[in-house]
Design a protein that fits this description.
By secondary structure, the protein is α+β, with helices and mostly antiparallel strands. The chain has 16 helices and 15 strands. The protein has two domains: 120 residues, no CATH class; 287 residues, Glutamine Phosphoribosylpyrophosphate, subunit 1, domain 1, CATH 3.60.20.30. Helix content is 38%, strand content 18%. It has an eight-stranded mixed sheet. A five-stranded mixed sheet has the order 7-8-9-10-13. A two-stranded antiparallel ribbon has the order 14-15. β7 and β8 form a beta hairpin.
Length: 434
């Protein structure tokens, strides 16, 4: 199998870890095994899915919207809304459930660490009935960062608290400090370090407008999903050596090669049209210590106007901060746009920010979750699929009473490793797909 992009991993990592990797087998066997591993990852993704009945014609209340992997606590939160409980209680119940789950690696206990192997958490919450909100960022050792954001909101007049001072504040308000790493996340960090020990890094210049086109095309990202699967397969023995079992080796290598921030954002509205929203994340895996994304930036990763609706994000925080995405969407709805129109407009702004450069946009993922106060909703994605090739989906539970999964509307018909397939696809997608 030939690999372009300077054979980034095959030459840099596999050669330096040849003893660990052992025999690679013939191309046909490798391709078959890579396909099987991708199927295993698909099964893991599908395990979070829910039924997909037809969307009701008329919005209903109460309603909850969020990402697919953030649905463990949705049913209980829905019952809280039906009972008339506080809307922020319901939103934070979902966040806490995910933060407490060591098998979820996007937030709280078991969140993937930064470049120094430390788990740093960001979170925010917005309470529509009281029109208050707050966020925390770069917090270490405090599992329930979303609950800490609420305490900051209720006990102080501050909207953002960061780092060691946020940790001290947490301890002074009854939170307990603990090691948030797990055996799985420590192994993942070790795997990432082994890959990063190669002389050429993954590169940071993709967002530099002066970066030469030739250098962009030599970037590590494989030219197709099949090439990515093959690269992952070749590194799986190294993952096994570092403690990953057969069911987790594909996912471990994938996270090391193609890290992605997948925060949990959740928004709720009750029968009285009262709204709250919250978000929690361990951020981009292997990120620079102290770096934060869009989640603790109120207006970018999370925003709510109780008279209009709410919006939140999952994806490249830097891209979202540039357009103040969540606030932009809510303001679009204030002007009369539907949730779908409001979200697609924000995605077009991101594309325009990168001058519609499809080489650069292959490194950008963005999903918005949008809920209007009357229960109308939508989720929109920059790409139809994610980097692993799965169609982007979201979870909704509303007056129909059934938690269900729906596909996101999208701007570009493709997924980041492959890009858009043809010029016609680009023209159709960039026309809005609305």
């Amino acid at each position: 199998m030939n690999f372009t992009r300077r054979d980034f991993l095959a030459t840099m990592v596999i050669s330096s870890a040849s003893a660990a990797l052992g025999s690679r087998g013939d191309a046909q066997t490798a391709d078959s095994n890579a396909s099987q591993q991708h199927d295993h990852h698909h099964d893991d993704h599908a395990a979070h899915g829910h039924p997909k009945p037809t969307r009701p014609a008329v919005p209903g209340l109460p309603a909850i919207i969020g990402k697919v992997t953030g649905t463990i606590g949705v049913d209980a939160a829905y019952e809280m809304l039906k009972r008339g409980d506080n809307t922020l209680d319901a939103a934070l119940h979902i966040c806490k459930t995910q933060e407490d789950d060591p098998n979820d690696h996007s937030a709280g206990l078991g969140g993937l660490p930064n470049a120094q192997g430390e788990v740093q958490l960001d979170a925010c919450c917005l309470d529509g009935p009281t029109r208050r909100g707050a966020a925390v960022a770069g917090v270490r050792g405090i599992r329930n960062a979303s609950l800490l954001a609420r305490v900051l909101m209720e006990q102080t007049g501050n909207s953002l608290l960061v780092g060691s001072d946020a940790e001290s504040f947490a301890l002074s308000h009854g939170f307990t400090k603990e090691d948030l790493s797990t055996e799985r996340t420590r192994s993942g960090w070790e795997l990432w370090k082994r890959i990063q020990s190669a002389p050429e890094t993954l590169g940071s210049g993709i967002y530099d407008p002066n970066w030469p086109e030739a250098a962009r095309k030599a970037h590590f990202l494989p030219g197709s999903q099949r090439d990515l699967d093959m690269l992952i397969h070749k590194l799986e023995p190294l993952a096994v050596q570092l403690g990953f079992g057969p069911a987790l080796s594909w996912r471990g290598v994938y996270d090391a090669l193609v890290p992605a921030a997948e925060p949990l954002y959740v928004s709720v509205v009750n029968q009285k049209n009262e709204m709250s929203c919250a978000a929690t994340t361990s951020g981009l895996p292997w990120r620079l210590p102290g770096a934060v994304g869009d989640i603790p930036v109120i207006g970018a990763g999370c925003y709510l106007d109780p008279e209009i609706g709410s919006a939140g994000s999952s994806g490249n925080g830097e891209a979202n901060v540039r357009i103040d995405g969540a606030h932009t969407i809510v303001e679009n709805m204030r002007k009369g746009m539907s949730p779908q129109e409001a979200g697609m407009d924000a995605l077009r702004r991101i594309a325009k920010w990168y001058k519609d450069d499809m080489t650069a946009l292959r490194f950008v993922e963005m999903v918005y979750f949008i809920l209007r106060k009357d229960g109308d909703y939508e989720s929109v994605s920059l790409w139809r699929g994610d980097k692993s090739g799965h169609v982007r989906e979201f979870t909704i539970k509303d007056a129909e009473g059934m938690r269900r999964t729906e596909e996101c509307k999208y701007l570009f018909d493709g997924n980041p490793p492959n890009g858009v397939r043809t010029t016609a696809d680009l023209q159709m997608s960039h026309g809005g797909n609305v």
